[in-house]
Structures are given as structure tokens and as C-alpha cells.
Records
---
Amino acid sequence: MKTPLNPLNQLVESLQFLKQPEDDITPYELIASIHQGTINAISHLKAALETCRLNGLHEQAMQRYILICQQRLCAVMNELPTAWLNTELSSSHTIQENTALLRADICFQLDEFLIYLRDTFPAYFNRLLPLPNIHKEIIRQQLLPGIPLIKRWFDITEESCHDLQDLILDMFDQLEPASPQRLNDAKLQFLVQLHQHLLRLLDQENYNLQHHQLQYVLFCLNCNTTDFYHYCTTWLNRQLHKVNSLEEQMKLLKDTYTDMQQLQLRSGQAYCPDAPPIRDLLQEWLVVEIKFLERKMKEEPGLLITHEKIHTNMSVSMIALMLRLLRAMGQLSQKHVEEAFRLLPRYFMARRNETFTESIFRAKYKELTSSTLSRIVGIGQELLKMLKPEERTSKTRRSSL
């Protein structure tokens, strides 16, 4: 039986001439010789591997051969510059252009053989081994037409999606030539799948996008990164702060847990195949939160009371500005302001069900927009008009004393 190691050595040796070319050979002749040697070595290597497979070579021996081929092939490809993939041709087809074409084809031939190893022997191919920059650059060039479309789409979508969009774009940025990030096959294939799903969603929604749609794509593709896990838990904590009682918080947690159970992940798909699925990670977090809330409900049953909120036609910014004016006029102490931060979101509801939490209230208190100030001035003027003329005269007289 032919061993694959002989043609593998032939492949490696054919590329060694780049380091020590003969003195009397031209650049074109050198590359043409290496190109032909690469093609012949790959052909012999494929034949040897197929013979091993058809003859029922022992599984451990086959795994060893594939791993050695993958490692040595990646080492050889890492020595080739990614600039070889960039070819510019003119109508004259000069000898320099033909040399450049052969260089590019050497890269493509080696990359195609790497893909052959992955697809033909998936059980033995190490998906966690970092792949050469040549392979990463080929993937980047394949995705390049769609990435600017995705970025423009993200620019015009609602603000609630921006943090999640930044997380996605950071992953695509790993493909940039300037990025030092070495990517393995699992991560590169994840980015390919994510790219396809986003373009499909863009076409279906006609540039519309909602937060849950983007989140669902990452769940289904099993984006089990630390960043996405932290994003999800932070987002869930924000949703918990929006509800009014422990009962509602418990319902939200349990409903989310049920949704996670029903989530269908793509088989064999993960950004990090050696880490737990994102569904399992979040379910574990939800169980901890549910148990904590159950304990809290037993220890403090008074917190189960749901308070009926007072509806207002004022925005959170307007309520914050009024509180700020009262503090500036000396009508409230800082201690009173702190109490207002805590109590007003609990008992009052802003207009149009605008999210009214303590953290948002504090942020709006620090901001002062001209539109909110104009609105408050308008309300003050309307109040003055509602007063009777003699009341206005009396108020003016008293204020002048």
C-alpha cells in the first residue's frame, strides 16, 4: 500500500525551491516548475489517501495521516505571502502577469487540497487547528461583496440593534488582512454561514431589521462566544428591570427558559466547537436567576405586591428636567432627588409606554436637550394662560414686592 507521506514530502520539497532557486533560472521558469510540481504532488497525494481509504486502513493510522497532511500543508501555506492572491491583468499578458497567475494558482491549488481533506475526511480533520492566512484571505475575498451591504443595512436599522450589530461586525473584522487573529475552520465556516443568513434576511425583510431577528440568527448558528453570552445576559437583566414585580420577573425568566428549550440549533454548527452551546450556557444562567428569585420571593413576600402605575403624558426627559428644576430652585434636597430616582419609575409610567427605569431616569437627569426645555417652557406658558386674569395680576404684584 502506498503511504501518503511520500507524495506529501514531494509537495513540501516542490515549494522549497522558493527559498533556494537555481542561479540560471528566470522567475517565470521557477514559478512554472513549482506550479507543475505542486499539481503533480497533490494528485499523487490524493491517490495515496484514496487507496488507504479503499483498502480499509486502520482508523488510527488514517487519522494520523490526515493530521500530518493538515499540519504540514498549513505550515507550507503559511510561508506563502497573501499578496500572491492579488493579480492584475492587462490585455498584453506580459511574462510578469503570467508569473503572477501561476503564483495565485499555486495558492488556490493548495487551498483546494486543504478543503478536500476537510470535506473528504471530516472525522479526522482538526477543525480547531488555526488555518493559514492564505485560506483566510480567500474566504474574505469570497465574502467581500456582501459585507459592505450588511454594514449599510446595519447603519439604517433601529438603535436597539446597534450593540448586537457591533458584535457581529467585530467578528467579520477578524478577516481583515491587518488583523493578527488566526482563525480555525470552525470560526471561518461560522462567518460564512452568518454572512449567508444575514444576506438572506436582508433580502426577505427589504432592509428592515428587528432585534429579535438578529438575535435568533446568532442563536440558531450557535454563536457561543463569551461576548454574545455577556450580551444576552446583560440584555435579559435590562428586561427584568423594566417589569414591576417579582412575579413578572419570574414569568419573564421562565418564558425565556422555555423559548431556549424550543430553540433548534444547526447540527454540528458552533463558533467554538469545544465549548458548550449558547443555549446550554444561557439556560444554566436562567436556572440560577430563577432559583435566586424564588428564594427572594419566599424571604420577602411583601415584594410580590404589584403597584398600579400612574400614567402620564410626559416623557422621561421631561420628568427628569422638572426634577432637575426643583432641585436647582432649592425645593428638593439631594436626598429627595435620590428618593425620586427610586420611586418615580416604580409608581409612574411615561407617555407611550416609554421605558422608565432608574438607570434611564438618572441618565436623562444629567442630559438637558433644547427640545425638552422648550416643551417645559410651553407647558408653563399654557398653565399661565389657564389662570384667571386677576390671579395672574395678583401673582405679578406679589412677585414684584
---
Amino acid sequence: MKKILCLVVAVLLAVAVFAGCSGSTEPAGSEDASAQSSASAETVGSESSGAASAAGNYPRGNGDDTLKIGFACMDMSNTFHATVAKYFEQECANRGIECMVLDDKFDGTTATENCQLICDSDCDVYVSVMGFMVGDTLSDICKEAGVLAIGMDQPIPDFPFFGADNVTAGYSAGEALAEAAIEKWGENPTIDLYIGLESLAGAEINDARMHEGMLEGIRSKVEVPDEIYVQCDVTNNDSQVAMRWVEDTINAHPEAEHILIGGFVDDSGQGAEAVIEKLGYQDKALIGTVDGSTLAINNFKNPDTAWVCSAALLPEMYGYYMLETLEPYLKGETDELPDSWNVPPVVITKDDYEQVLTDSIIYDDYQVG
């Protein structure tokens, strides 16, 4: 049986996902953007928006010549979401689109007020991550105002979804982690323990990223029986919580010589890396995550790190990939808007992260790490 370790959660927990005026050029792989958009309903899995409208029946805007988008950042104090907001505003400026950026401050009341303000400000589009907290209310406000809502990384009922492709991101990170295990421990290595540092508060997203994604990616290369899988609920994706889970789990399995650790976000990977270093387990453990943030990059610079890969969600590119599909629809150049489309993730490792990120992020002001 799979061993499930859970913390008692007393309040509603949120899900962090998951967590760029400069010139721009086409990003690597951009010729596949339209194909990814049309196929996204299949690849995104559980992030379905449940849109009631048929594709193409979403609102197109207020009729003005200049497009205006209201972007409600989940929390500007969060590095990932602040980065999305910064480059979303920059991409709008590059395209001549007016952008109104507000901070939801990770608060449902503030998110509701910001949504109403955006709708009252003649915006054509409202973008928010707060669908997991007040999605029904946000949906009702936008319907009443005739404004197109985009649920970013978290769906808003009856409107399209845009964001991370959690299944693909998790699966590619899992494959890379398994390949690192084969390289380190030889062909067909016996994995003694798999620790899943997960975010159970967001069950659907967690299942897509960590089960359909990462665990299946690992199992495509090496065997991971259910009985060696320890699922840990990392409250609020906190690195300190991850540290406690990893240390307690490893201490409960002193016989484990080959340990794989998968993290929902890089914060969990940071906690895991600290424990592996403390225990001197660099030869016994390997870590893979989803996020691709500076936390992963800074650890990749350590030649002795056990953290070998991360699927980069590219917050810098959210604006580009959203607007590549959304702008033509708003201008009437395309007839349909898909019910969901995604930012294509890329896997970075400690050997190639600089080149991969440089090729994937199109903005002149971007610097790796």
C-alpha cells in the first residue's frame, strides 16, 4: 500500500504553482504554439475550465480600437507571480495593448474587488489566478459585465484556462530524474524509496503534476512500486516543512540506498537539498522538481548537489504565449478561442540550464539566475 503522510490542515490552503521595454524575437519552439493551443485540452488534463460556452462564443471586448487587459496578480510578494506580472505588462506594451496590473494580495476579498474594478474600467479581458478561492464570484462578475475572464493556472468557471501544462511539466521532470538515476546507479537501478513532496490542498493540480506527470515519467524509465512511495503534504509549499518530511522519511528508512525525491515546486526541492547535504546523502539521493526558478539554478551551480533537474514553467513567457492566441481572437482575426492553452515547459538540468533558458526566454533584459 502507498504510505500517505499528511499534516492536519486547519484553514483553506492555496496552491502556488506551481508556482518581460526590450526587443523580442521568436522563442525556441514558437512555431509549435498553435499546435500546442489546439491540443491543450488533451494535455492539460485536470485544469479544465469547465467552460459552458462553445469555443468562439466568449466575449471579444468593448469595441474600442485599443485593447485593454486587466491583470490581477495573485501576490506581488511572490517571486513567480511577480515575474509573470512584470513580463506580461512588458509583452502588452510591445504589442500596443493597454495593461492594468493589480495585486490580489492572496486574499479573496481583494481579488473580488479587483475583478469588479477591472470590469468597471472598460477592460476587454480579466486575468486572475484566484479561481481556486473565489472562482464562482469572479465568473459572475465578468459575465454580468460582458468581460472575458482567463483563469491563469487555476480555472474560473465557464471561461477559458491558460497556464502551466502540469502533466507535461511533471512527466518531463520525472523522465529527467529517472535518467539521472540510471546515469548515477547504472542500468535498471533498484529504487529503494521515492519521496513525493506534494501540495494536496490543490488535489486536481497535484494529481496532474505529481501523479499523471512526475510519477509516470519516472516509471517510464525505472520501477517505482507503490510500497516504496511516500506521499508528503508540504503545507503551503514551505521549504521548512519539506525539510522535516524528508529528514523524517529518510530516518524511517535507514536501509534505503537509492532515493528519488520529487518536488511540486522548487521550494520543496530546496528543503530536500538541505537535508541531503546535512545527512551526507549526495551519493544516495537525487532530486527533481517542477518550477525552474532561481532556487534550482543556484543549487545547480553546486557541483555536489543532489538536485539534478527541474521542469521550468517559464513565468517570463506567460504573457507571450497567452497573447499569441488571445490577441488575434480579440481583434477578430481568428474565429475561435480554445477552452485551454498552455505555456510549454522546458526541462533544465545542472548541465544545460543556462543554454536552455537563454533559448526559451525572448526578452533582452532577462538574465539567467
